[in-house]
Amino acid sequence: MLPAIVLAAGSASRFGSPKQRLLLAPVLERVRASSVDDVLVVLGAHEVETDARTVLCRDWERGPGASLRCGLEALPPGAEAALVVLADGPDLAPAAIERVLAAWGASGAAVVAATYCGRRSHPVVIARAAWASIPDEGARALRAELVPCDDLGEPGDVDTPADLPARLRGG
To answer: How far lies 53's CA from each of 5, 16, 56, 112, in Å?
Structure first.
């Protein structure tokens, strides 16, 4: 079993409002278009309505690693790994998910991450053997096998309203 975790626990302070309310649905749509078995959303600073299964991370302020650990702890014992994506990447390509999953399946590496223009990003696959080593700063601190996904377009990183793709801007 290989579930996905969508990290949506942050405060969105630079955005000025809970950006998860706007961005979570498009991210979930893209994750569900892939071959993952299940999706779990990690919430924290804000309540967000979603049709996905959720877990509340009370320690979200400690950093993305704390939120990720909350999500990993909520996965079923049969999960051999988890695909991790960020809720503020509304342009995530389902093909990037498939590419990273395939690379993980072929290599068996503990951590496999997508890159775009040479920069490490998401999606990321984390094998169960690496779950206990997630630091508060998140999976980015772990060594990863890198998978180029330049041809698929970057997933996006919406930190401010100006970062929103045109299709998500009101008016």
So the answer is: 10, 26, 10, 24
